[in-house]
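Hi R.,

As promised, here are both runs. First protein below:
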Amino acid sequence: MGAAFNVLRGVETTARWRSIFGTDAQRDKPTKPYRQVGVVFTCVQRKADALARMDLRVSTPDDEVIESGPLVTIGECPNPAMTWRGFIRATSAYLDLFGRCAWRVVAPVGPSPLVEVWTLMPARLSAERDDRSGELLGWTYRHAGGREERLTVEEVHYFNDPDFEGGDELSGLAPRVAVAMAIEQYFKSDLANLSSLDNGVEPGGALRVPGELSEAQ
């Protein structure tokens, strides 16, 4: 689930340029800015890395530090596939890229007393609501292989940066949406520079006239 945070990499090489950016008609805007725009990748990664370097401290509402116990154990190792640092990196990246994040809380299985907490890919998580009241009834999560799984309200801890102007309080507002125009400018600049380099930085044509031009001409 959340361990997939690091599978994405930076700006692709020239050899794979067309397979990523598509035809001319599809290159107006980046469809996957985290992969296609180096500035987006760098900002998301650096923020996530900075948060992950912070020491974990578990405390009560009165700021009394808890040094041991189930909460500390979950904090240090939220699930068998992730450490605290990997978990917080994924959470930070999802908030920056989607404006929302969700944790799945898995109850203890068998003799194990430990609860597991997993990050969920926001784009694969959809809310199920009552048609009349709009009440949240649960969630549907689509796994990477296409399998869909129904999750209860209690199983999902959902949080976001709300943008109520959009109408849905669960949508969230990602930073990349607010700066979409700047991201698009970076993207188009990269494409123009790459095209120029592929052309050997040669002009596309030249204008020739007979004789010599006057100052007025």
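And here is the second one, sequence first, then its structure tokens:
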Amino acid sequence: MSIISTSTILFYEGPHYYLSNFSSFAIIIEGEIWMTVEHAYQASKFPAERSEIRTRIQRALSAHDAKQIAKAHKGEACPDWDKRKLSVMEALLRTKLEQHSYVRRKLLETGNAKLVEDSPKDSFWGRGPDWGGLNHLGRLWERIRAEVMLAPHP
């Protein structure tokens, strides 16, 4: 296993696309298949009573479409969504890692590099247009990576 020695790894597209929520790694949650983490994340915004929105998001043909469906129904999201979104994302990333050994292996190969979602638009999950974004997605991946590196290997 070759550890990447670069101090910062940008992911959004390109060689580290596997870290993106839009990458094609399906996850299974409570017996339901979600084409991407993005699909599951967007559906999580809505209460169970809004199952028709959740189903449309789950069946969306792309992560981009899933995001657009959620955006069109923004006013119907759970009122506490902003308080829960980081923990929901973390759980989804952990699920992706547990269900895809490739993602786990590639994440570990990043060593101790800083992980930055290279989104020029998103200042919450990524670096944002001015590189002053909060980079929550990169920080979540770093936290998960640190835990996996410390965990005993079978």
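A quick note on the second one: The helical segments are 37-44, 51-58, 63-72, 81-99, 101-109, 136-150. Let me know what you think.

Best,
J.
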